[in-house]
Design brief:
This protein is mostly helical. The chain is built from 16 helices and two strands.
């Protein structure tokens, strides 16, 4: 198993290298860049000092060099004006739009993005698994119809519309401030119990909005998988031999029905990150989604490149975790690795 994990880590490193090249080339496809466009604007206004600063940044980050040299400098295998300083050295680049290092711009946004989406993942599984089990074991009952209806509503209602509705009623009924992840008075304050409580309270709305669509889809898929497993001969045989109903359900059918969802963990987190951009804009959430959208719009290449690499790394780590859980969950996969 250790050898398998080491091979996967090496494969992940090579995959990230290929993704980094693709990301950089795609970002550079549109003509010009942030600084070039900015210099044209500044020259039109006659601001010579700002033009000189922008030209200095172009020299410093090698934006006047060929694209392949810019890429090698970005990942840190080709020295620039300050030596080797790229992703491999922990230098995430400079955000030209914010005029500060990318690490300073996305620092809080990274862990807040992970917090929100991990909370949504936990919510999805805590709600969807019991609902799917109930729906599959009470097929064609009133409860099954209610769960099915809620699933269809969750799939049909747009996330941004649900966000606006929940924001309105959370403010009207509970006095929760509109948008953000804490009260506006606590935004730039150090962490205290009051700020932590405000964060937890403000997490409820984005967790519901981001997680509801995934919950509805998971209920429908898991219900179908579980019904298929419950109709197989091994389940019928287990019941015929007198195995208690709960044990007959959880020991084999339930475990087997989980396989597709465990395999999807690698796609779930990046999907939630990319799919919650509009929700983050509506709720004014300080996550990487709006930052990525703004960076792509303004051609802030180092900011956009790092966020895309972050999502790619999240995908690869998620896939590794899902494979390890599958090995633990399914004895057939364990036997195949021997």
């Amino acid at each position: 198993m250790i050898a398998q994990i080491l091979r996967r880590v090496v494969t992940m490193a090579v995959t990230l290298l290929v993704i980094s090249a693709l990301v950089f080339v795609i970002i550079k496809l549109p003509p010009g860049d942030y600084l070039t466009n900015r210099i044209m604007e500044l020259r039109a206004t006659g601001d010579a000092s700002s033009v000189a600063k922008a030209e200095l940044l172009i020299k410093q980050y090698g934006l006047d060099r060929p694209v392949w040299q810019q890429y090698l400098m970005w990942i840190g295998v080709l020295p620039g004006s300050v030596g080797f300083s790229g992703l491999l050295q922990g230098d995430w680049g400079w955000s030209f739009e914010y005029d500060k290092p990318v690490a300073d711009v996305v620092g809080d946004a990274l862990w807040l993005t992970l917090l929100i989406n991990l909370t949504a993942v936990v919510f999805v599984h805590l709600v969807a698994i019991p609902a799917a089990i109930y729906s599959a074991t009470h097929r064609n009952t009133f409860g099954d119809a209610v769960v099915t209806l809620l699933g269809y509503v969750g799939l049909a209602v747009p996330g941004f519309l649900l966000a606006l509705i929940l924001l309105f009623y959370a403010n009207r009924w509970f006095g929760l401030s509109i948008g953000g992840l804490y009260d506006s008075a606590l935004t730039n304050q150090p962490w205290t119990w009051e700020k932590l409580r405000s964060l937890i309270a403000h997490l409820i709305v984005p967790t519901l909005v981001i997680g509801l669509g995934g919950t509805a889809a998971m209920i429908r898929r898991m219900r179908a998988n579980l019904l298929d497993e419950l109709a197989k001969p091994y389940t019928v045989t287990a019941r015929a031999k007198g195995l208690p109903p709960l044990q007959a359900l959880l020991k084999y059918p339930f475990r087997m029905s989980l396989n597709p969802f465990v395999a999807d963990i690698g796609n779930l987190l990046p999907h939630l990150v990319s799919g919650s951009v509009l929700v983050s804009l509506v709720l004014s959430l300080p996550t990487v989604g709006p930052l990525l959208l703004e960076a792509l719009r303004s051609q802030d290449q180092f900011m956009a490149g790092f966020i895309l690499m972050f999502v790619a790394a999240l995908t690869l780590v998620g896939m590794l975790i899902s494979d390890l859980i599958l090995v633990w969950l399914d004895p057939r996969i364990r036997m195949g690795l021997r």
